Amino acid sequence: MMEYLKRKLSKMNNEQAWKEKVGYPRYYKENGLFIKETEDGEKLIVTLNEKHEEVITGKLK
Question: Is this structure's pTM higher than 0.70?
């Protein structure tokens, strides 16, 4: 279900280069959760539904 985000994350193995190359929103894995960080710094927990659409399941502080 999360293969799309896993592939996207696996291509970004250098975090600094990732921050320079990728704009917003940024996706990464933190503490076993897939996080979407918006340009204003908001961090959202995301999953994908059966149609491979993003579903926001929560927010991080």
Answer: no
